[in-house]
């Protein structure tokens, strides 16, 4: 299980754990949409199994965003006097916006790993 998590965060193919899923790493920032390989360069595993395969990755991305918002809230909460101070909302917004590209990549990687035994 730990090896699977390390390989997922390392942008590795779920089948052979050697080829990369995205051209750049998980934490590479650019102003364009992340480019993803169609097949693994090592074993040839096809990452997008069918058209619309990554539609479900949106829900994973939503879950990641909610988790990030809650973690940010609990980290910021001791610095404010009230239980829910409205000044926390912009901080949460900045955190979520700054992690958008990581969420896109990570949600697709998680989605691929969820269906790694799925064959076409």
SSE inventory with pairings:
Elements: H1 2-9, H2 57-76, H3 88-98, H4 100-114
Helix pairs in contact: 2-3, 2-4
* Terminal Cα span: 25 Å
Q: What oligomeric state do the depicted chains represent?
A: single chain
Shape: elongated
Structural class: mainly alpha
Number of continuous helical runs: 4
State the order of secondary-structure elements, H for helix, E for strand.
Answer: HHHH
Beta-strand content bin: under 5%
Specify the biggest β-sheet: none
Number of strands: 0
Q: What's the overall average pLDDT, rounded?
A: 85
Residue share in helices?
40-55%
In the predicted model, the low-confidence regions spanning at least 5 consecutive residues are none
Radius of gyration: 17 Å
Short synopsis of the structure:
By secondary structure, this protein is an all-alpha fold. It is 45% helix and 0% strand.
Describe the structure.
With about 120 residues, the chain is an all-alpha fold. The protein contains four helices and no strands. The protein has helices spanning about 1-10, 55-75, 90-100, 100-115. Helix 2 (about 55-75) crosses helix 3 (about 90-100) and helix 2 (about 55-75) packs across helix 4. It starts with a helix and ends in a 6-residue tail after the last helix. About 10% of the residues are buried. The model has no long low-confidence stretch (mean pLDDT about 85). This is DUF983 domain-containing protein. Keywords: Membrane, Transmembrane, Transmembrane helix. Pfam families: DUF983.
Protein traits:
120 residues, mainly alpha, 4 helices, DUF983 domain-containing protein, transmembrane
């Amino acid at each position: 299980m730990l090896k699977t998590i390390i390989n997922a965060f390392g942008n590795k193919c779920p089948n052979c754990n050697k080829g990369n899923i995205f051209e750049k790493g998980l934490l590479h920032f650019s102003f364009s949409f992340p480019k993803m390989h169609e097949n693994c360069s090592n074993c040839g595993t096809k990452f997008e199994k069918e058209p619309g395969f990554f539609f479900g990755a949106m829900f994973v991305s939503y879950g990641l965003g909610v988790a990030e918002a809650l973690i940010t809230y609990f980290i910021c909460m001791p610095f404010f006097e009230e239980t829910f101070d409205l000044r926390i909302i912009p901080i949460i917004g900045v955190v979520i916006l700054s992690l958008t590209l990581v969420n896109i990549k990570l949600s697709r990687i998680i989605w691929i790993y969820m269906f790694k035994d799925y064959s076409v």
